[in-house]
């Protein structure tokens, strides 16, 4: 997909078992004749004994055979067929409070489940289950249910746990989510995880993956910008955003027809507008982005503005990569960045 970087970068990723390199790079070990994923739990070879491949076919053609532990010749999910079973169980029991005991009772090792889900989905299974339960609470609150009823519907045993989950996400407790507000927040499911969309009748103000660590801070800053709290609800703009996201992930519509309202400094807005000018299927380095706005020496400032973007996908900060062609940090997770670039290269 992307040009592979130098040997040292790949070897460092191998030692770190970096999941960002799934489906992008494989390592062949000359002393064993085996090729593996970079996330393989097997003992790591010496750097001088490593060869790098972009595809399983290339490793096989070079005479290497696939590892029986990490199954590098199939998809990540194929290496752990029980992943699909767990996801099916979660879909059937969205309000269940999943624990490591549940996993052990199914004959699964909780630590293996945690590592595998983080490698495939960017978060643990238990974290994913908590997110699904929180979504149920949001739906109940939006429909006017009392907080205690929403808490029970979401499968939270205690009011404090339910309240804490909301405070972590929104910066204030659930009972204040229903008080009057000019901006409304709603949940939108996508193939890469749930997203929070905040909009009014005229424009989108925020679109973020719910597991992004900086989301609560972004929500608080948005509240300050608009001079009020953010409520729960849905507008016609949310429907418009949801329709575009569905089309985007289905490979039908690359460019959004969604009006946005920026909340940032003039410089930040200039960078965000430049991001929107990067065509789908293409990428830019920070240096190229800085040059595009006429500030070639402001690469660090451009990087900071890129990191403060609060409208994911529609303002495509995921299209910025390292100068050497490697993927750089993405607050939504490098695994998501990789998949978004792959989707958009399909458009190109």
From TrEMBL:
SUPFAM superfamilies: Ada DNA repair protein, N-terminal domain (N-Ada 10), Methylated DNA-protein cysteine methyltransferase domain, Methylated DNA-protein cysteine methyltransferase, C-terminal domain. Gene3D superfamilies: DNA Methylphosphotriester Repair Domain, Homeodomain-like, Methylated DNA-protein cysteine methyltransferase domain, Winged helix-like DNA-binding domain superfamily/Winged helix DNA-binding domain. The active site is at 36 (nucleophile), 317 (nucleophile). One of its GO terms (biological process) is methylation. This is methylated-DNA--[protein]-cysteine S-methyltransferase. Keywords: Activator, DNA damage, DNA repair, Metal-binding, Methyltransferase, Transferase, Zinc. GO terms for molecular function: DNA-binding transcription factor activity; methylated-DNA-[protein]-cysteine S-methyltransferase activity; sequence-specific DNA binding; zinc ion binding. The keyword Ribonucleoprotein does not apply. Binds 1 zinc ion per subunit. Zn(2+) binds at residues 36, 40, 67, 70. It catalyses: a 4-O-methyl-thymidine in DNA + L-cysteinyl-[protein] = a thymidine in DNA + S-methyl-L-cysteinyl-[protein]; a 6-O-methyl-2'-deoxyguanosine in DNA + L-cysteinyl-[protein] = S-methyl-L-cysteinyl-[protein] + a 2'-deoxyguanosine in DNA. It is an enzyme of class 2 (transferase). Belongs to the MGMT family. Its cofactor is Zn(2+). PROSITE patterns: HTH_ARAC_FAMILY_2 (PS01124), MGMT (PS00374). It comes from the Bacteria. InterPro entries: Ada-like_dom_sf, Ada_DNA_repair_Zn-bd, Bifunct_regulatory_prot_Ada, HTH_AraC, MethylDNA_cys_MeTrfase_AS, MethylDNA_cys_MeTrfase_DNA-bd, MethylDNA_cys_MeTrfase_DNAb, MGMT_N_sf. It holds the Pfam family HTH_18. Residues 106-180 form the HTH araC/xylS-type domain. Its EC number is 2.1.1.63. The lineage of its organism: Bacteria, Pseudomonadati, Pseudomonadota, Alphaproteobacteria, Rhodobacterales.
